[in-house]
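Inputs:
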Amino acid sequence: MRSQRTELYLLRRGGDESSTELENHAVKLRYAVVGSTTHKLEFPSNEVVVLNGKSLKYDLKRIDECCYSLLIEGFSHELLLMEASQGHYALQIGTYSFDVRIDRLDPLLREKTQQGKEAGAHTMTIQAPMPGMVARVQVKPGDHVASGGAILVLEAMKMENEIRSPCAGIIKTVHAKEHTQVERNDALVSIEVL
Amino acid sequence: MNTRIRRVLVANRGEIAVRVIRACRDLGIYSIAVFSDVDRELPHVRLADEAYCLGDPAPRQSYLNIERIVDVARTAKADAIHPGYGFLAENPRFAQAVCSAGFIFVGPPTEAISLMGDKAEARRLAARCGVPILRGIEISDNSDDSVTSNIDDRDFPLLVKAVAGGGGKGMRLVCRREDLASAVRAARSEALNSFGDSRVYVERYLEEARHIEVQVLADQYGHTVHLGERECSIQRRHQKIVEESPSVAIDDQLRAQLGTAAVMLTRECGYCNAGTVEFLLDKNKRFYFLEMNTRVQVEHPVTEMVTGVDIVQQQLRIAAGEHLDVAQEAVRIRGHAVECRIYAEDPLNNFFPSLGRLRYLRTPVAFHTRVDIGFDEGNTVPVQYDPIIAKVLCHGRTRTEALDRMVSALCRFHVVGVATNLSLCRWIMEHERFRRGDFHTRFLDTAFDPQTSLSPPQKLQTIAAIVAAACSLRESPRALTTDGVVSAETWRRRVFD
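Outputs:
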């Protein structure tokens, strides 16, 4: 079932520039950030998930537009997947709501690398979350940005993705140029954190 | 049912319009719905036999437009008009206009609405009947000066309330003298906007009080009964969200006393049809008359569940001139019923309305569970009206059984597209103090912390992580993203910006 989906996925994308995507699919490793906790998840097969090193038998089925059924080690859960975009997932289980961020790299490791790269501890570099074309740059050096403020628009897979600032600060450097291609993890802008 | 009422116009929208139309159906009465431009797709329009557009969604142009609604009733050859709750339900000018145009008003006589609509008048009537009232401060000319100068420092904390009030509007709690003047001004302006009457009065504020109300039914021949009490102490911003019957704070003796007081007031004001007499109950189980609501209440179904009396059907029968076929001795409270009002609002964001399209909607179906709902999947919760989506009701032989059923029901109520208070309702149902019956009208203000109260169990977080990660492997983000859907977080930002 998954291979069929992957094929469709490749067809839709014209079958080009997909080597990175395919590699990441093949790795089948994800980091999920829920609240302040990061979980490491590996999917060695369609029936097994390794959650933080613990192997669990699972079966996930989509029931309708929003409803999913998860059987995990015999336990049955009904979930609503309310929204999904760019690694961000909003789910509901019973009356509880969850916002989950999915990453292919360990977010902790990434943070450390970033901090290492920067001269001052108070500078943060925003990296491209996916390969794409910089459609619009909405800030220039010296601009103040609020947390959640618009930085630039990255076009990928025919979708415009707004990149927002994770913190309040002042724009130090704009690395990205409009109408140029960026690779995943390329530096987009550097922000002096306030 | 006699033949005086064959065609009923329902001058309301949403769940209560659906409720009234159902009662009409049950009685073989032809139903006529009205709707504003934004409500064209709501179920009440489809459920009715006929439906007419009122036009502009602004309440004053639609559901509050007396002339327009009476015109539609003429066009549709209605015999009677049912006002539901809210909008024109307690407006004596509307009741008068309906009667003058030759229609039957499914509600009390105009005089009773006027009398009970003036909260200061209603207090005086209660005092004359010997029903206890909270010490009030009479304000002769209703000027700001007269309000402030008559108040003693010992009177605090107090409530400033609109004379024409209801639904928590025009109400302010004041704990210190220096806040009084601004509270009076705010209450006046809110009262003027909501009721077109800026008069206010001041009442002693009872701390740790419970809100208890008694359902009454009276026919045109003076036969008056009560159907026991409802407890509505769980409120936010002076508006109820959880109601139950019977109340854990009321024993048979107190129930009889409250019932007698309610029936007496109902008789004294020349009342007919269904009504609700509201009381406050203090820590020492002394009760005080608060006000009378001269209409069907949002929470009427909890009484229906424990008594088996169809209140809306009774309203129609009484309006048609039938004799009330409910004898006081025959009224029995069976088991326990609880109601949760499901609002499109965000409990994590000061209960701010969360409006939008109900992209996905599933309601619970179970033994002894009832859902009164005014929307279908795909409908939009519009900005113009109260953001109530539905009422979920559960019945049980005991209170615990009813509350347990409610928890299951809430977990099976699925909404995507707007934020809801489902998680808050569940938190209340499971709260140890609520379970014990140890609560009062400020329960939420004191016990609920939006930062921590609704945080989910750790185990479910890992379940969410697994599903999100599995989905990210399986499908492209495009396939999962749906236009027009925004997260609660984005909504919060959007609404505030």
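Remarks. Chain B has four domains: 7-106, 135-204, 210-447, 459-496. Residues 252-268 of chain B form the longest helix (17 residues).
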